[in-house]
Request: fold
Amino acid sequence: MADSDQVQGVEEAAVFAEEQEQAVAIEEADLAIVDSPQEDERLPHQEPAAESRAAEEVIPAAAAVPRQARKLAEIIPSQLSTLRQHHYAVVTTDDIEAVHKMRVTTRRLQASLDLLEGEVKVRPLKRRLRKWRRMLSTVRNYDVFLLLIEQEAASRRGAREQFELLKTELQKRRAMRAARVKKYLSNLDLIEELGTKLGLSKAAMSTLWEQPVGADDDSIGEPPTAEVSDVESPALDPIASSDVVEAPAFPAINEQAAEMRAADRLEQRMAEFNALAARSHPTTDPRELHQLRIAAKRVRYLLEAVTDMGFGDASQALTWLRSLQDRIGDWHDLEALEEEIIGLVAQRRLIKEHLAESAAILLAATHLQKRKRLLVSRLFPVRVPAGLSATCRRLVKALRRRAVRS
Reply:
């Protein structure tokens, strides 16, 4: 009996490998023709750091490092530990990347928790993660605004002084917001709030608290862009920071049920994304276009979770989704900064005290509008590659096959 099971397992593995090779070939043929951000498609006068970041983000699939398959019972505690590390950095340092990384980790964790629905009451936990992420986004937005202003000032000779008032006001707002967010987060015990609801034992939570902080790799993660109105973040990059943590045991969960749910959710997420992409056009309302970016992220995070669970490679599909997110994110950041500038110059006190500077600020807004129109011309139409759908179908099939056979 054992020998027949072993033979059957070998045959199934061979069939799966053959299907995977065929699907990868389809991906390579379709995804290779998709426009990805090239050197001449980035924002004009972009900072060198931002350029190197964009170059690192669109990595070739061949550079991906094979990852060992893990169960959700291993993935979720590891993500909790990583979240705790970034939370510690946010409340104890002024590192702007700590804010970004904590937001990213809440998204990763939320995607994993979504696969436990029906076994654990995850909705309150997901609401909590969204709340923290939105608070962090209000800080991260100002970091992005200040970067955009610095780029605009550098692109126009003799205009730096005209931007000083705007930079000063944005820095004040950022400092006030960061202080409030820090105060709130410093009173949170993340492991207690999340771990208890997930059924982690006291011993397991103690193990998480004993993990050393600051151990993750700073070179890994999403690019430093921000969602300005986070209505609900990364991909699992080749080696994510959450992968380097030795995680404590998680309470027994029905992995087969999670796999079947992952298959259903992947089909649903992909259908939602395709529908939004088909409806998008250059005159799309900013909120609707932001919804398209959120839909792309949901597909991306779920693909990452599925590949982390060992159901196949999706590196090229993930690269394309990251590229689309970045393009929409760049456009949305300019849209939000424009609104922020309009709100600033609408203040009577500010205009009265700084009349000349206010006129310069409005002039800067017109330059931002030109950059935004340029981005829109390069964003549309959104052509979803056939390889993305092929990848999702392949992973859905693999998830259901293993769940049924188990």
About this structure: Residues 110 and 126 are 6 Å apart (CA to CA). DSSP finds 14 helices and no strands in the chain. The first helix runs from residue 2 to 31.
